[in-house]
Amino acid sequence: MIKQNIFLLLIFTISLTLVDAQNLVNRFDKDGKRQGFWTKNYYQTDQKRYEGVFKHGKEIDTFKYYRLNKGLSVLSAIKVFNEKDSISDVVFYASNKKVISKGQMNGKRFIGKWLFYHKNSNQVMTIENYNSEGELEGEKTVFFKNGDLAEESFYANGKLEGLYKWFAEDGVLLKQSMYKNGQLNGLTINYDGEGKKLSEGPYTNDTKSGIWKYYENGELKKEIDHTNQKILKRYD
Q1: What Pfam family does this protein match (any one) (predicted)?
Q2: Cβ(38)–Cβ(53) under 8 Å?
Q3: Helix, strand, coil abundance in the chain, percent, nearest 5
Q4: What is the pLDDT of residues 10-54, one digit of tens each?
């Protein structure tokens, strides 16, 4: 009889402990704001959607976010929040746990410097910079998987601005253009795989304009006025 009572008391204690633990999850403060540790599953599943800690409705510390992959939750992002503002340090993950990208966000906007990685690799693929409005600002660089430069460009308020360069994987410059307000404006030069000129001339608002020169094996062969599409001169 004594053993039976002890067993029933143990079961009762465990039940109370489980109830108390459940009460510590997904709570609200006196103002109806989320407070403490929260976790949510995808609708009508037992698969986790996110988990993290709130302080009077504000995310603080580390949050983990998940996406469904073949019906199972896999980690897709980790955001580390502070208590002062809505800025967080963010890392996005692929299904195989490789890092896709990392940087800072203000709410849903990318801000500051962001790094993007080649698929299934620790090698940086792209470096981008964002302003406080979440628009590309300043230099953007793209790299081949071997680490060599593939593209170099500049942005102002989310639009291409200034010199844009493309490179082959062996480092040869293939193209350079000038942009203004997101459109091709100014001189563009195209090169072949050996670095010899193929063509050069100006653009105006994404359209070829003025006199363009065309080359073969690095030698000038013809000039065309693209304002009226007239061949001005041919070279033998």
Answers
A1: MORN_2
A2: yes
A3: 10, 60, 30
A4: 444 444 333 344 458 999 999 999 999 999 999 999 999 999 999
Q: What is the CA radius of gyration of the chain?
A: 29
**C-beta separation of 209 from 203 below 8 A:** yes
Determine contact, residues 38/26, Cβ cutoff 8 Å: yes
Secondary structure (3-state) at 6: helix
pTM (2 d.p.): 0.86
Centre a 10 Å sphere on the Cβ of residue 225 and count the other Cβ atoms it contains. Answer: 15
Tokens (6 digits) for 195: 């670095």
What's the token pair of residue 82? Answer: 């502070």
Q: Bridge partners of 99?
A: 93
What confidence tens digit (pLDDT) does each residue in 139-173 have? 999 999 999 999 999 999 999 999 999 999 999 99
